[in-house]
Amino acid sequence: MAQTKVASEIARSLMREAAERGLVPGDHLGAESWLLERYGVARGSLREALRLLEAQGAVEMRRGAGGGAIMALPQPAQLAGVLAMTLQSGHGTLRTILEARAAIEPTMTALAAQRRTPEQVDALLRCTEDLLTDRHDSAAFHLNNRRFHDLVAAASDNLLLAAIVPALSWMSQAIGWEHDPRVRKRIAIEKQHIAEAIEQGDSWSASQRMSRMISAYEEIDTADPHRLDAPVVWADVDELLEKHLQSEADRPAS
Known about the structure:
The chain folds into 2 domains: 1-71, Winged helix-like DNA-binding domain superfamily/Winged helix DNA-binding domain (Arc Repressor Mutant, subunit A, Orthogonal Bundle), CATH 1.10.10.10; 76-250, GntR ligand-binding domain-like (Four Helix Bundle (Hemerythrin (Met), subunit A)), CATH 1.20.120.530. By secondary structure, it is mainly α. The protein contains 12 helices and 3 strands. One of its GO terms (molecular function) is DNA binding. This is FadR family transcriptional regulator. It comes from Actinomadura bangladeshensis.
């Protein structure tokens, strides 16, 4: 317990100093020997502090030349794990997630229409084209469907929305649902309209269309009345994260 407390204090000091030094993701936090000398702590305490930060997604530990503790940006999937644990403890359901998305995403989409860059618009339009192309491929469609919401969140130029919305989308994926190709086509076309409204800077239309898009998922109640009341289980979300991280590790370097 004492070592854990020391490690937590070191972790806070490391992050506070990183902010003061203006470090950004990709920057080296410092060599182990330098950090040991600077903080005057035992190697075990420093390494535990770094493990704590790594678990939070704040640093990445790399091996080899040029490795060590590298500043990182916590990913939505990691935030999803924390939120899923909270929901499981409070008996949250898929309905809980969709209600939160319905409250947040229309405003997020309006911001995206105001703040989007040409590059972000291009990415959104390409994503909708992929959705139409992949409507017969369930796995590819669901991947691009989630990516669309991630792209809108990024275009909102709000750091919290860009983390929270993809995390909520990730948790929705853990519950899972299926659509036939005709429904997927309808979803893809509606998302195309949202992307076009964002391109045109039409905040009202973009917001209204996103609101209808999220609310449409409540149609699940008709097909499967109990689906929206399925509990969110942390283990399910965490398992998705492990698979995602493994697929990223297995992906060939570009």
